[in-house]
Amino acid sequence: MTTVDLAAATQTTDKHACLGHPEGTSRRTALLGIAVAAGAVCAGCSSSKSSSASTSPSTSAAAGSTSAADSSSSSSAAGSSTGTASSSASSSGSSGAAGALAATSAVPVGGGTVLTDQKIVLTQPTAGTFKAFTAVCTHQGCVVGSVANGLIVCPCHGSAYHIADGSVANGPAPTALAEIAIKVSGGEITQA
Q1: CATH value at residue 129
Q2: Mind telling me which PANTHER family this protein's record contains (predicted)?
Q3: Does residue 113 contact residue 92 with C-beta atoms inside 8 Å?
């Protein structure tokens, strides 16, 4: 029969030899280091996405050149925001002119168009009357999803707003959508 010294076995499971440290490193210390590193990577990714959405792709790529991880996440974020911007422009009917939000023909009478990337909803309550509101729901900050039957509808909790003035038609939204000043000229809608 073999006897095992439990006190010695317990001590060896808590400490592991580290090549650079002769006394060893505890498992907790190693896991804590990994957790801190993972948190730093996540924080770096989230800040690089938000900065790349508000800057041009060349600026975000230059800003992300400090490390390989930042550079790759920044360039992928810039690529994804470029892709969504072009799909938004095509779905809104924008003619591509600088500053134009959309063509007037892209906003149906009695309805509207949600410009997700710009967080703006354009409406045309009556023929020739165009309105713009923030597309951010006043309930919990979701971006509204559609315009139908004279209402701007938020998909998160069912809030609805009137297309004529942005006032609340259905809760739980507590207040109206803020109006955004626009200018209509030459068949295009621009932010004033």
Answers
A1: 2.102.10.10
A2: CYTOCHROME B-C1 COMPLEX SUBUNIT RIESKE, MITOCHONDRIAL (PTHR10134)
A3: yes
CA dist., res. 182 & res. 105, Å (int): 16
| Pairwise pLDDT comparison (14 vs 118), residue with the higher score | 118
Higher pLDDT, 29 or 170: 170
pLDDT digits 0-9 by tens, 115-142? 999 999 999 999 999 999 999 999 988 9
In this structure, the answer to whether residues 77 and 104 fall within a common structural domain is: no
pTM of the model: 0.50
| Final residue before a domain boundary, out of 67, 90, 113 | 90
Q: Which residues of 119-152 are buried (b: 16+ CB within 10 A; e: fewer)?
A: ebbbbbbeeeebbbbbbbbbbeeebbbebeebbb
Domain membership of residue 4 (yes or no) is no
Burial class (CB in 10 A: 0-12, 13-18, 19+), 74: buried
Distance CA 110, CA 114 (A): 14
- The parent domain of residue 17 ranges over 10-90
Residues 121 and 83 in one domain: no
